[in-house]
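README: folding subset

This subset contains proteins for which both the sequence and a predicted structure token string are available. Records are stored as plain text. Below is the entry for Expansin-like CBD domain-containing protein (117 residues), shown exactly as it appears on disk.
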Amino acid sequence: MASSFSILLAAVTLVALLAIGSCGTDFTVHVEKGSSPTKLSLVTNVDVSEVEIREKGSNDFLECKGSGTKWTLESKEPLKGPFAVRLTLKNGGYRVDDAAIPEEWKADSVYKTKIQV
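--- output ---
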């Protein structure tokens, strides 16, 4: 039969594991001032390996150019939001938010995504 101390220790351990597992950083995207209908200049709050953007109505992600926290996507045609963001983390994992940047985005604005890193 388990002692009260063993049960208490197990409960404390479980609470600690749940707290650690739920602690993450909200991934944000800053659409910089130089952005236009054909160019998205992005700064992320976390250093990542790759950022890709999917336009509204598309099945394909477009690879942004850049590294670390600064990324750019340029197009000959106006880009159509809302935009999904897929990022590759430094550890190789990836995350996706299907509506990270709204349709009516504005330059020099920060958007909080649903992504936890």
